[in-house]
TrEMBL record:
Species of the source: Agromyces protaetiae
SUPFAM superfamilies from the UniProt entry: alpha/beta-Hydrolases (SSF53474)
Keywords: Hydrolase
UniProt key word ATP-binding: no
GO CC terms in record: membrane
Domain AB hydrolase-1: 77-256
Name of this protein: Alpha/beta hydrolase
Length: 271
């Protein structure tokens, strides 16, 4: 299914789950990662239908983002195509930036927020503590992932794809066959990733924090090297949000801890 945004761009969208009733919207992360990495989202869609927004730059929508601050009309277009005036919004990882931008720019439209493993340092300036988390891990792949994350940014698509593969273990609390398989799902590309961060106003964080924020739940993984732990704590506090941190869990809680994640997310969406 496609929805036409005000500038004429066709935004792809699909539904997760067989539940009936009003859907919650779900913005994927990456940025611009192929949306199949969501899988069944730990079965949350069997409790509350999830209408997934495929952001610009994903393989299904195509094109490039205008920058996460500037794509909020796409979210509103999907909501309106679903018949929603006020709606509940779920977002993962990079998608949480677009979710907060939508709150800031469209007051009154977002009824609640569920933000899953959000990148957090941009909002509060809290120091990244992923190196401390990595010291608890014995796998050599984790050390290599962290070294790549802290190194130079990739200069071309080949370097980006190499970095993406090397950094995969940082997204998980373990590196078994389950996590390895998931890390291969959903393609990403350098130009789409870079476009996500263009033309962002210098006061974006301040504008978010001075917005009228809806009830918000942040779900984090205690072993998420991509976000760190303390930055996500500070992020939730700054938003006045409730926070749940799942033990033995990284950046993709529906993969590593589906029962715990599915329970918390479902309870929030049907409260």
């Amino acid at each position: 299914m496609f929805v036409t945004s005000p500038d004429g761009t066709r935004i792809a969208t699909h539904t997760i789950g067989s539940a009936t009733g009003e859907p919650a919207l779900l913005i994927t992360g990456g940025p611009a990662r192929g949306v199949e990495y969501l899988g069944d989202f730990a079965g949350v869609g069997e409790v509350r239908p999830l209408q997934v927004v495929h952001p610009r730059g994903t393989p299904t929508t195509g094109g490039l983002s205008r920058g996460w601050w500037n794509d909020t009309a796409d979210v509103i277009a999907v909501a309106e195509a679903s018949g929603l005036e006020a709606f509940d919004l779920v977002a993962h990882s990079a998608g949480t930036r677009l979710a907060l931008a939508t709150v800031a720019q469209h007051p009154g439209r977002i009824r609640s927020l569920l933000l899953v493993t959000p990148p957090a340092t941009w909002l509060t300036g809290a120091a990244y503590d992923g190196e401390e988390l990595a010291r608890r891990r014995a796998e050599p792949e984790v050390a290599a992932a962290l070294a790549s994350m802290l190194g130079e940014d990739p200069a071309d698509e080949d370097e980006f794809q190499t970095s993406w593969r090397v950094e995969g273990p940082a997204g998980y609390a373990a590196w078994t066959a389950v996590e390895r398989a998931h890390a291969e799902v959903g393609e990403m590309h350098l130009d789409a990733s870079n476009a996500w961060f263009r033309d962002i106003p210098s006061d974006a964080a301040e504008r978010v924090l001075h917005s009228e924020l809806p009830p918000t739940l942040v779900i984090g993984g205690r072993e998420d090297l991509l976000t760190g732990f303390r930055p996500v704590e500070a992020y939730a506090s700054a938003l006045g949000a409730d926070a749940v941190f799942i033990d033995e869990c990284g950046h993709y809680p529906w993969v590593e801890r589906p029962v715990e994640f599915g329970g918390v997310a479902s309870d929030w969406l049907v409260r």
